[in-house]
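S.,

Sequence below, as promised.
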Amino acid sequence: MNIAVIGTGYVGLVAGACFAESGNDVICADINAEKIAKLNDGIIPIYEPGLDELIKNNSEAGRLSFTTDVAMAIQGSEVIFIAVGTPQDTDGSADLRFVLGVAETIGKVMNGPKIVVNKSTVPVGTAVLVAEEIAKHTSIKCDVVSNPEFLKEGSAIDDFMRPDRVVIGTSSVEAAEVMRELYSPFVRTGNPVLVMDVPSAEVTKYAANAMLATRISFMNEIANLCEKVGADISNVQTGIGSDSRIGTAFLFAGIGYGGSCFPKDVRALMRTGNEHGMPLEIIQSVDRVNTHQKGLMVRRIISHYGSKEAVRGKKFALWGLAFKPRTDDMREAPSLTVIKELAALGASVSAFDPEAMEVAKQEFVGKDIPLTFAESSYDALKGADALIIVTEWNEFRRPNFTKISQSLKAPVVFDGRNLFDPTKMHRLGFVYHSVGRPTKGM
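The prediction came back faster than expected:
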């Protein structure tokens, strides 16, 4: 099948590469000439395990190509995926300028019947807007389908190749059959292809992410309660996760969620509720709790040193910049809150992350923030008053504790991801602060 993917961001590149891997001829189009030039030179603009090899292999096989000629990509394809960004607008809603811009281009240049697929995360009603925009410029038949993505950064290739389910929103029998055929190589083990009405498909994406975000904020609130009553969130997590009705996923306490999906999608869903006169009170609380949780480690630091004034002049080593492991994505990352709040208190930070260093340098370029970037996790410790752990990279889980203790001015660790055992840390001589568990060594 001939496929066009408009937009070469995270979703577009993963979708394009995976569709090509299953034998389709895929052309990924983007108006960003610099990005397309790099892709044609084999330079991948994002870090996602396995994506570079997938793009390389399929490009060499002639099934995957990249272009700035969006019109050519549209005209040469039967199915057109819209995978451009939907950034959060100032009022919390999803900004649909880029989606509707692609729809306008499709309407102006399409040369025959097409299936247009919304792959971008878009609020309910977007498919109607896309269809209306296309119809302004052509009378040629066009089916607009909602096909939300459910990719986890760090495991996106596997998620696409082996999906839990594929959601297709359409009222067209013909479009549904084409989409079933397109996804058939990925559901050979029997996982469902769910065909439903378009509004339901659009809501499903937001509802899924909001549910997962809710579990995270719920556990963080319970963790904070555990600290007040002397309980251990690790034991509580095991106790409730063993209930088959609840399960173990997304029950880890920490310092909040970030990334390109959960924060934006939660707020967009809140905005949709408000627009329809139905404030989503649980979802509003999820967002509020998460925002507060991101500052937990800084509040813990202030408490440890006795006052905000006592933090001034301190230097902190920070392990982890990305919002989660196995990605370089720093969008809405808790590290941003930690670094900025410490800077406001007059402290400095030496940071290290296995993948997000270059992204972080761009994030803070030109900003008056006392932040330096270390060559390694241990290099970040040199001369620091304490260590803050923000991202749960595997390489941080089994460190050399003797080396940590010797490098720090004092053996103090603020662990925002509960990587270590509090009793062991106390035995090793550390003052160890974590989330929802007893603090040892005070």
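DSSP finds 19 helices and 14 strands in the chain.

Coffee later?
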